[in-house]
Design brief:
Layout (H helix, E strand, L loop, with lengths): L6 H17 L3 E7 L4 E7 L4 E7 L3 H6 L6 H17 L5 E4 L8 H11 L5
Parallel strand pairs: 1-4
Antiparallel strand pairs: 1-2, 2-3
Helix pairs in contact: 3-4
């Protein structure tokens, strides 16, 4: 019996499959966005653990942001995850957009992470 995946699950799997071919052992910067918040984490797939993470739900960001669902929130999360990854000793990653198009909040997070010192 075959498994029927939704269109978004197939798109996400396609992005991950392409990332595996170009990763060359680098860590993965994964992004998830919901209607109210945005999340990012640096993942070591070889060992199956999270190196650094940040989200717009964190207390210090919630107090300084108007909402967790705009470009300003995405930029703040991108900066925060980049500095946490640098503190953990990670500078090179591959960007996993997770099936979302590279536009708006996802692009703002990626640009802020690049400015924060992550190389991808």
């Amino acid at each position: 019996m075959t498994s029927h995946l939704s269109q978004s699950d197939r798109r996400k799997a396609k992005v991950r499959r392409n990332l595996k071919s170009v990763a060359n052992g680098r860590l993965r910067l994964s992004v998830h966005r919901s209607s109210k918040h945005i999340y990012a984490q640096v993942i070591d797939d070889a060992h199956g653990r999270t190196i650094a993470a940040a989200s717009s739900m964190e207390k210090e960001l919630r107090t300084s942001l108007k909402t967790g669902a705009d470009k300003a929130a995405a930029e703040a999360v991108g900066k925060l995850v980049a500095e946490r990854a640098a503190k953990a000793g990670c500078s090179q990653v591959v960007f996993d957009r997770g099936g979302y198009i590279y536009h708006g909040r996802v692009k703002a997070l990626a640009d802020a992470a690049r400015k924060g010192g992550l190389d991808f």
